[in-house]
Every structure is written in structure tokens, then in C-alpha cells.
Write a structure and sequence with these properties.
Elements lengths: L4 H12 L5 H15 L8 H15 L3 H5 L2 H14 L1 H21 L8 H7 L4 E5 L15 E4 L6 E4 L7 E3 L8 E11 L2 E14 L2 E2 L3 E3 L13 E10 L4 E2 L4 E2 L5 E2 L5 H8 L3 H29 L16 H37 L14 H29 L11 H10 L7 H14 L20 H26 L4 H5 L3 H25 L4 H21 L1 H7 L4 H18 L3 H8 L15 H11 L6
Parallel strand pairs: 1-5, 2-5
Antiparallel strand pairs: 2-3, 3-9, 4-9, 5-6, 6-7, 6-10, 8-9, 11-12
Helix pairs in contact: 1-20, 2-3, 2-5, 5-6, 5-9, 9-10, 9-11, 10-11, 10-16, 10-17, 10-19, 11-12, 11-13, 11-16, 13-14, 13-16, 14-16, 16-17, 17-19
Length: about 625
């Protein structure tokens, strides 16, 4: 099929944003060249990460400009995620969390001095130390302490017990490392809540005095050098306290304008907004590339089953359901990524006029929904769906899906790992469901009578909204009944945790459905609308089929509607197959940007060529 320029351009704007970026092409070019270069046998994983961070720093705009523009941060995230998922984990730590904390919480981050300069130039690797290994929900019970020395006005950082050891990708001996460390501030034994501190951990010779870094711990899903970190009386200069308008007066008294330890924790962890604003775009890019490569692989690959010897794998209905469904899911994640960036942009504008607010949701299971419920829920929902897409594409590509050069294993490993990393998704959805059930709201909405319109892009958003309302109202009535019976705390909520999680997950599905509906509604070109309407409808049908148990149990869908879904999916696949050149051309990475052999016309030759060009690198 020959694609016209106008629909391709408009679809490209949906996928990549409306502003033309030389940054995207520049980053993809330098990352592809770095990946294709012969490996240095003397360079281990830690040194390679340091070198790649320096390479990125040379090709990025100044840090101040980067942190003012969510679109550019999203471009950085997408490009690194596509080409090297483990490197993207390091980039998130370095830019979004470490430098992002400084940009968010310091009045002027350049006054931090040497650590800021080393991080912005890539001379030091940045990490974020918040998670402590000893307890669940450790963010709510941070035990690492920073005591104010009234004589020097330094803070003295200590790990009081082994369970307070921090965990992050700080292993190896690749060079200087600097961390943003979350610690509980004590002044004359008074607890003032959790603040962030900029702490230099190591130089080329190893850990600095007072810093203990354990031997590396392996995590195969996302191979980096992880380790535990403990502090023994590490002195941190006053200028490296990310005080966020708090201050210590001449008498040594700490004044915090927030005046509340929960509000301070919320503000300290507000850097999570930057991560959640860009992570959905990155996992959407991984999902798109997974689906596009798997579709191209299946379209060229012949099967020798006895039903139809020599047929292409993509001719099989179950393969179409899986891979066209994956493409539809990837498109939905792309729309959700744009929504996340828009939410963050609005949040930054509001914060500029109202810098600090108390937590809007309570901190019951974790702090994350109190920081920003919509962004946290989008993070949880998008990483889970991206992991499902990558896993489905792996499975549908057979052995090829699990080979390292084809990258699907790396995409799945990253998305799967981030179900826990970056704010535990299980806890986010629990808190979201609890907050939704306790908030005010109207009666359950009317379920659309939509058996005849299952192939319409508006069907699933209506169903998702109705399902969320039904689950919310059912859980609310149960909570009210148990509260009247005198139940409180864990006694109240323990039997309801699965229902709260189900409601949080339905809320996430509804946010994604709304994002798809908004994107499709805004399309101008009639030819593109004819393509995206069935793609959006397929996303809805796939989501409904996956969630059929919950939808049927709640009475949101009738059994007849659920039984009709496979036939609807068949029809939508037939409508989409002629448009695959347009969809794959716009949704896949540019030619040469991701040198995985999976999507090549001649896969076997491309695989051999990749092995010839790229001897095995150290993992």
C-alpha cells in the first residue's frame, strides 16, 4: 500500500509529538553508532555506563533547559529505552531522579558546586537512594538519618541498622558516583521529616570515607551493577542539603514552611512526577517497537504446519489477534504517554504559583498517590501493559523473541522490573482504589447498551468509565457498612485489599481509554481516522477480553457481549491488515536506529550479520 504524506505526518505527530526535534535524530544516531561499534574488551559494564552518560551529556541541551521541557526529557527517555533498556535505567536515575531532585528542590542547583557540574557533564554517574532493604513501604519509615551539627552546620549521615541500607545501581568500579540520598533530618533529636541530600559516594579509587558499598548484586531482568549502601558519619556540606525553602536559623532551629512531616515527604518525593511524566512515553516506545518488529517478522516468516504449508505466520488468526492487539495496545500507551506529559506540564505551572500543598490522598500503603495520583496510576498502568505487550511479542516470535540481539527480552525485562521500581505499582493501585472509594461521587453510571457498536472507538471508554463507577460504588458501600460496624485501620481494609486493587486497576484502564479517545477525536485527516478508529476499537476489545472476568462479575458487560468479542476482533483485524505499512512506518523506530535483526525482510541473514558485526559484549 502506498501511504500519502498527510496521514503519515499526522500519525507521526501523535507518536513523536508535534514539535520537530533534531534532538531525537541526534540521540538515535549517536546511540546506534555506539551500539554498533566494536566493543572494548577491557571495558566492563560500570565503565561502559559512565562512558555512555558522558556521550549523552555532550549531545543534550544544557541541564536547565532540559528540565524546563517535558517533551525533551521524553525524547531522551524514548531514544535510550529503544536502543538500550539497561542504560535507560541508569539514565532515569541520573537525569530524572538525581539531577531532577536538584533542579526541583534547590533554589539554584549551580550553587551545589562540584557535584552539579560533574553530573551535568557526565563526569559522575548520578543515582537516587530512597529504598531501604529492611522493611516493606520503607519510604514511609525512612531510618537513614541526617543529624545537624550546630557548630559546623553540616549534616552527618548515618545508617543506624543494617535494614536501613539503601539499594540502587551503585555497584562496580566504573568511576565517580554521586547520589541524592533521602534521609530523616534530626535537629537536637527532633524529627523534621525526610529531606534529600547530595552525597558524593565514590571516585576513581572507590568509595569515599564513611561510605560502604557492598559487592554487586545481580538482577537478570535489568542487568546493572546493583549494591547496598551504608553511611558511617558522612559529613554533608550545608549547600548540599536540598532544603526546598526550609532553613536553619542562627540559633540552630530548623524552620520548614510545610510544617508537616507527611507534607515534607510528599515534596521530597515529588521528583517522582518527572519520572512518571516521561516513563509512559518510554515504555510506549518499547511496546511500539516490540509490536512492529513482531508483525514484520510474522509477515515474512513461513510456517510448515500441515493445515497450510508455506503460509505466513501472520495469516493465522490467533497471531493476528495477538500482534495486531499488541500494536493497538502500543498505540494506547503512546496516547497515555502524551497525557502524562500534559499532566506534568499543568502540574509544574500550578506549582509555580502554589509551591507546596499538603497531601491530597493519605499515605496508607505508599507515598506515591499523595504525590500525584493520576501520574502515579498512569505509571502503574502503562508499565504493566508494556510488559504484557513485550511478553506477548516474545512468545509469538518463538526462539527469536528471546535472543538478546532482537531486544524484546530487554524491553520486557525493563517494563517488568518497573512494576516494582519507580514506585511499586501494586501499592499505587491499592492507594488509588482506597482513595477513590473514600472520595465523594455520584451514583453508578448506566452501562452502554453497546452490543451492536463494539467496533466503535467510543465503546470501550464508556465501558471503562461505567466499570470504574460500579467498582467504586460497590467498594464505597462496603467500607461504609464496615465503618458503621466499628471497623478501622487494617481490620477495616484487610478483607478489601483485592477490591481496592481491582478499582485502582480499573481507574488506570479508564485513564488510558480516555487518552486514546482524546487522541482519536483530535485527528483531522479522514484517511487517518479510517485507520485509527479500528485501531482504537481493537485496543478496547482486547482490554475488554482481558478484563472479562472483572467486567462480568461486576455486571458491566453481559455474557452475550463478552462472547461477541472474538468475532469483533476478527473483523477489526481484517480492517487493519491493509493499513499495516502506514502503521508500522509511523510507529516503528527510524531505519537503522534500532539495529535488531528481528524486523528485517531476511531475518536469518540479518541475524548472522549482527553476530558478525557485534561480538558478544559483557552484560
Amino acid at each position: 500500500m502506498t501511504t500519502r504524506t498527510q496521514p503519515l505526518d499526522e500519525l507521526g505527530e501523535i507518536v513523536n509529538g508535534s514539535r520537530p526535534y533534531t534532538l531525537r535524530s541526534r540521540l538515535l544516531t549517536v546511540l546506534a553508532a555506539d551500539r554498533a561499534a566494536p566493543p572494548d574488551p577491557t571495558e566492563d559494564r560500570a565503565h561502559r555506563i559512565h562512558r555512555q552518560l558522558r556521550l549523552l551529556a555532550k549531545n543534550l541541551p544544557p541541564a536547565g533547559e532540559l528540565f524546563r521541557d517535558p517533551e525533551q526529557l521524553a525524547v531522551l527517555s524514548e531514544c535510550v529505552a529503544l536502543t538500550d533498556p539497561p542504560l535507560y535505567m541508569a539514565v532515569l536515575n541520573h537525569y530524572a531522579l538525581c539531577l531532577g531532585s536538584m533542579a526541583t528542590l534547590a533554589e539554584d542547583p549551580t550553587r551545589i558546586g562540584r557535584p552539579w557540574q560533574a553530573l551535568t557533564t557526565g563526569r559522575a554517574k548520578g543515582v537516587f537512594l530512597v529504598t531501604e532493604i529492611g522493611d516493606a513501604s520503607s519510604h514511609l519509615g525512612t531510618r537513614t538519618v541526617a543529624r545537624l551539627d550546630p557548630d559546623t552546620r553540616e549534616f552527618v549521615l548515618d545508617t543506624p541498622v543494617p535494614g536501613a541500607a539503601k539499594f540502587s545501581s551503585v555497584g562496580g568500579s566504573g568511576g565517580p558516583q554521586t547520589a541524592v540520598v533521602c534521609a530523616r533530618v534530626l535537629v537536637d533529636d527532633t524529627d523534621h521529616g525526610v529531606f534529600s541530600f547530595v552525597v558524593e559516594l565514590s571516585d576513581n579509587a572507590g568509595p569515599l570515607p564513611g561510605v560502604e558499598i557492598s559487592p554487586s548484586i545481580e538482577a537478570p531482568s535489568l542487568p546493572l551493577d546493583y549494591a547496598l549502601v551504608r553511611f558511617r558519619g558522612v559529613r554533608v556540606p550545608h549547600r548540599q542539603w536540598l532544603s526546598d525553602r526550609a532553613h536553619v536559623d542562627a540559633d540552630g532551629v530548623l524552620h520548614d514552611p510545610l510544617g508537616d512531616r507527611d507534607a515534607r515527604l510528599q515534596r521530597t518525593l515529588s521528583v517522582g512526577q518527572l519520572l512518571w511524566a516521561t516513563l509512559p512515553s518510554a515504555v510506549a516506545a518499547m511496546a511500539r517497537q516490540s509490536a512492529v518488529q513482531a508483525l514484520r517478522f510474522s509477515a515474512h516468516r513461513r510456517a510448515h504446519g500441515r493445515l497450510a504449508p508455506g503460509a505466513h505466520v501472520l495469516d493465522l488468526r490467533n497471531q493476528q489477534h495477538a500482534l495486531l492487539g499488541a500494536l493497538a495496545q502500543a498505540f494506547a500507551l503512546t496516547c497515555a504517554g502524551r497525557t502524562a506529559r500534559e499532566i506534568w506540564a499543568r502540574s509544574r505551572s500550578a506549582t509555580a504559583h502554589r509551591p507546596s500543598t499538603p497531601p491530597s490522598d493519605g499515605m496508607t500503603f505508599s507515598p506515591w498517590t499523595a504525590v500525584d495520583r493520576p501520574l502515579a496510576v498512569l505509571k502503574a498502568a502503562t508499565v504493566r501493559r508494556a510488559a504484557q505487550v513485550a511478553a506477548e511479542c516474545q512468545h509469538r516470535c518463538g526462539l527469536a523473541g528471546f535472543l538478546h540481539p532482537n531486544l524484546l527480552d530487554g524491553y520486557h525485562g525493563f517494563a517488568h522490573a518497573f512494576d516494582t521500581a519507580g514506585g511499586d505499582s501494586q501499592l499505587i493501585l491499592l492507594d488509588a482504589g482506597r482513595a477513590l472509594a473514600q472520595a465523594g461521587g455520584g451514583a453508578a453510571g448506566t452501562v452502554p447498551r453497546a452490543e451492536a457498536t463494539l467496533d466503535h472507538p467510543g465503546w470501550w471508554p464508556a465501558v471503562a468509565r461505567a466499570h470504574e463507577r460500579r467498582l467504586r460504588d460497590t467498594l464505597r458501600r462496603t467500607v461504609q457498612r464496615r465503618t458503621r460496624a466499628g471497623r478501622t485501620g487494617l481490620d477495616l481494609w484487610n478483607p478489601l485489599l483485592d477490591a481496592a486493587h481491582e478499582l485502582g486497576a480499573a481507574h488506570g484502564a479508564r485513564l488510558i481509554a480516555d487518552a486514546v479517545a482524546a487522541a482519536v477525536e483530535a485527528v483531522h485527516d479522514p484517511e487517518l481516522r479510517a485507520v485509527l478508529h479500528p485501531l482504537a476499537a481493537l485496543h478496547g476489545a482486547v482490554e475488554a477480553r482481558r478484563a472479562a472476568g472483572s467486567l462480568l462479575a461486576a455486571g458491566t458487560l453481559s455474557p452475550a457481549t463478552a462472547r461477541a468479542l472474538p468475532t469483533v476482533i476478527d473483523d477489526l483485524c481484517d480492517r487493519l491488515l491493509p493499513h499495516l505499512p502506514l502503521l508500522c512506518g509511523a510507529m516503528g523506530a527510524p531505519p537503522g536506529a534500532v539495529p535488531a535483526p528481528l524486523g528485517a525482510d531476511d531475518y536469518a541473514a540479518a541475524l548472522y550479520d549482527s553476530l558478525d558485526r557485534s561480538p558478544e559484549r559483557p552484560s
